[in-house]
């Protein structure tokens, strides 16, 4: 299975740290955020990676190269500055590199101790997404989960937060035109059609969206509270 790391965001909430460095290269626990992701994917046996980039993306390619230093193979899907393809458009642009089989997609600005080998796409499903408890900065959540199925309507089930981790079939994007579009509407359509699974992760998950959260994660990693 191949995996894609989403690394094209501008990181406006991280400024001024991202004025001269792309967010995925910001360091926590002595390593770049994106290197933590690569190591976790490698531990799960995933060695074929695609990384998209835009803002200062050449720095990402210079830092990671072809992936040989991490025992993986990296291909890049550059989007160019100012294009802002959003999550759905960025994945769509990379489909030729990802191939015809289901692939894993992870946000480049999260830290999560999920074992990616837990994800499985059921027959006829277009997606399986990972859901976590709602963090303080997103208390309303995104979707509900019942019996392994992601749902639009809670109907008594509590809302959970989309972790920015999902397993997708290329057919999820089949009818979309190239260009900028979000991922969430595609997931909602799959849920409405009963073709989106869900996996609850009760472990550690952090959205590293601000300098304060970056500092918190750095302290946690340096104090050995979490596996690096």
From TrEMBL:
<dbReference type="InterPro" id="IPR005835">
    <property type="entry name" value="NTP_transferase_dom"/>
</dbReference>
<keyword id="KW-0548">Nucleotidyltransferase</keyword>
<dbReference type="InterPro" id="IPR054790">
    <property type="entry name" value="MurU"/>
</dbReference>
<feature type="domain" description="Nucleotidyl transferase">
    <location>
        <begin position="2"/>
        <end position="143"/>
    </location>
</feature>
<protein>
    <submittedName>
        <fullName>Mannose-1-phosphate guanylyltransferase</fullName>
    </submittedName>
</protein>
<dbReference type="Pfam" id="PF00483">
    <property type="entry name" value="NTP_transferase"/>
</dbReference>
<dbReference type="GO" id="GO:0016779">
    <property type="term" value="F:nucleotidyltransferase activity"/>
</dbReference>
<dbReference type="InterPro" id="IPR029044">
    <property type="entry name" value="Nucleotide-diphossugar_trans"/>
</dbReference>
<dbReference type="InterPro" id="IPR050065">
    <property type="entry name" value="GlmU-like"/>
</dbReference>
<keyword id="KW-0808">Transferase</keyword>
């Amino acid at each position: 299975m191949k995996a894609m790391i989403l690394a094209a965001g501008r990181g406006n909430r991280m400024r001024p740290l991202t004025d001269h460095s792309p967010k995925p290269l910001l360091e926590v626990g002595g390593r770049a955020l994106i290197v933590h992701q690569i190591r976790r994917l490698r531990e799960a046996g995933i060695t074929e990676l695609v990384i998209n980039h835009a803002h200062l993306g050449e720095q990402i390619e210079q830092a990671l190269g072809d992936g040989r230093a991490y025992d993986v193979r990296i291909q890049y899907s550059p989007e160019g500055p100012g294009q802002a393809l959003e999550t759905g458009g960025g994945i769509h642009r990379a489909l030729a590199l990802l191939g015809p089989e289901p692939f894993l997609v992870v946000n480049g600005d999260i830290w999560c101790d999920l074992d990616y080998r837990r994800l499985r796409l059921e027959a006829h499903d277009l997606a399986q997404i990972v859901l976590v408890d709602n963090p303080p900065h997103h208390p309303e959540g995104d979707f509900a989960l019942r019996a392994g199925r992601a749902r639009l309507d809670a109907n008594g089930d509590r809302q959970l937060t989309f972790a920015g981790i999902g397993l997708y079939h290329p057919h999820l994007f089949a009818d979309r035109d190239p260009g900028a579009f979000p991922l969430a509407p595609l997931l909602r359509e799959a849920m409405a059609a009963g073709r989106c699974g869900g996996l609850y992760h009760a472990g550690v998950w952090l959205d590293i969206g601000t300098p304060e959260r970056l500092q918190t994660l750095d302290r946690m990693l340096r104090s050995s509270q979490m596996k690096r």
